[in-house]
Write a structure and sequence with these properties.
The protein has a single domain, classed as 60s Ribosomal Protein L30, Chain: A. It has 4 helices and 5 strands; from the N terminus they run αββαβαβαβ. It has helices at residues 3-28, 77-87, 106-126, 151-157; strands spanning 55-57, 63-64, 94-99, 134-140, 159-165.
Length: 166
């Protein structure tokens, strides 16, 4: 009879740990395999549709980042300025997608991509866009701008792109 409490405690711990693993998987599950910053499943934002037909991409130059950095450098601020100037007062929604190079784990790259998108989001808000007009999404190392595996390609892939919801 005394082995039952130990067995029950062991089973409870195992179930609790498996529940945590499922939550982590769900955090990154998306329609396109993307991760929408801070958005629970079922409450998806336009960021989830960054690749959809309702989003214009390629209208603005991407913001490039240094290795392992999520700071918008002074030489990249003019790109943020261009987007903010064009969209300020327009009522349009901009989706900022964060990307990384291929190095690092999937989890690390998704997190870094999110930090990059959020840094650009904050810069856009500081330039006058309303918070509800700027959404973020992280693709991590998915969709590289340059598929090569060298420093030049990695530099191109460390970026945040802009999509404008139609």
């Amino acid at each position: 009879m005394r082995s039952h409490p130990v067995a029950i405690l062991s089973l409870t711990a195992l179930l609790a740990l498996s529940g945590c693993a499922n939550k982590k998987k769900k955090q990154y599950a998306g329609v396109d395999g993307d991760y929408v910053s801070g958005t629970p499943l079922g409450e998806r934002t336009e960021g989830a549709n960054f690749l959809g037909a309702n989003v214009q991409r390629g209208l603005y130059a991407p913001v490039q980042f240094g290795y392992d950095s999520s700071s918008v450098s002074p030489d990249q601020e003019s790109k943020v300025d261009a987007v903010a100037s064009a969209l300020k007062g327009s009522g349009k929604t901009v989706i900022v997608a964060g990307f990384t190079d291929e190095r690092g784990t999937e989890e690390y790259n998704r997190s870094l991509g999110e930090k990059r998108a959020l840094a650009v989001r904050e810069a856009l808000i500081a330039k006058g866009l309303r918070a509800n007009e700027v959404q973020t999404v992280s693709f991590g190392k998915e969709m590289p701008a340059d598929p090569a595996s060298n420093e030049a390609a990695w530099a191109k892939n460390r970026r945040a792109e802009f999509g404008i919801a139609k």
